[in-house]
Amino acid sequence: MMSQTPDLSAPLETRSWRERIMVPALIGLVLLGLWGVGSATGWAEIGAQLARLHPWQVAALLALSAGNYLLRSLRWHGLARRLGLPTGLAQNLRHYLGGFAMSVTPGRLGELVRMRWLKRETGWAIERTAPLALMDRAGDLAVMALLLALGLTLASGGIAGAVPVVVLALAAAIVATRPRLLSALVTLLYRTLGRFPRLFARARGAARLLARFSHGPTLALVLGLGFIGWLAEGYAFHLLLGFMGADIGLWKALSIFVFSTLAGGLTGAPGGLGGAEAAMVALLSLEDVPLEISVPATAVIRLTTLWFAIAIGLAVFPMAERASVRAGA
């Protein structure tokens, strides 16, 4: 009997109970860990550091994060146009920003809700729009690997374990942007498993569509907008440490931010929860940043990046859902 492929357009409410409790459980563990470190450090010292932040400083951090999301949204729009999707700028921005609401799903697979919206509004099957999501993720991996390599080159001192992370990120980006290589890997995996023929056939078709993006100006768009966007968030972390009296230099701060983000993502945890925070606190400690600064700095930067993105996504998600339902009616 032929295996059935998973229906990515199915309602998100069909998620299993394990998926439902995973995110709250991870958030609880992160908060528990930060609480434990904070208790050992002293809440008075941590509170004093947080009190040093002025509203305009928090606004500056949020503005830099917003710039990152806007640039990456424009990248999504450019990729959508290159793929040939009949969608406009406002429509593509709505899809991209609304997808952030699902950032803390395992492996960020919930962000594939963008494919569901596109299917309703354009009639394009998910395997035809999947290269768009794949190229977007590959672009992030490539520019973050480049930023980390640049930061390690220009910063004084290195980060233990950073080179393997750079290599893995670049390797994933290369595979994801090489249609023939990705198609060959999909075929190899199918021959190894010998199951799910329809799913692997769709995956091979999606891999071939990546050839649309093997275009100089398109690759320049992907790398340029992504590079500036992620640089803005790394610069925000540098500013935050300076606001809190722990300036360790731009490139060192950038390296720690990017490495922690990548390392958290490699754990597979939703939004890198747990891994990113632990790596950030540990690396700051190695730079002689005291825990009464590293703990609140980590909490603030995650609030103004990951959780700010989720807040934007939650605000846009209902509009994107309603628009797609109307279009598909």
Give the helices and strands, then pairings.
Blueprint: H1 17-41, H2 43-51, H3 55-83, H4 89-99, H5 113-122, H6 126-154, H7 162-176, H8 179-193, H9 197-209, H10 216-243, H11 250-266, H12 275-286, H13 291-304, H14 306-328
Helix pairs in contact: 1-13, 2-13, 3-4, 3-6, 3-10, 4-5, 4-14, 5-6, 5-14, 6-7, 6-9, 6-10, 6-11, 8-9, 10-11, 10-13, 11-12, 12-13, 13-14
Description:
The chain has helices at about 15-40, 45-50, 55-85, 90-100, 115-120, 125-155, 160-175, 180-195, 195-210, 215-245, 250-265, 275-285, 290-305, 305-329. The longest helix has 29 residues, at about 55-85. Helices cover about 75% and strands about 0% of the residues. It has a domain at about 55-100 and about 110-175 and about 215-329. By secondary structure, the chain is an all-alpha fold.
Structural class: mainly alpha
Radius of gyration: 20 Å
Beta-strand portion reads: under 5%
Count the DSSP helices.
14
**What is the H/E string?**
HHHHHHHHHHHHHH
Low-pLDDT stretches are 1-15, 37-43
Shape: globular
Largest sheet: none
In whole angstroms, the N-to-C terminal distance is 34 Å
* Mean of residue pLDDT values: 77
The portion of residues assigned to helices is: over 70%
Number of strands: 0
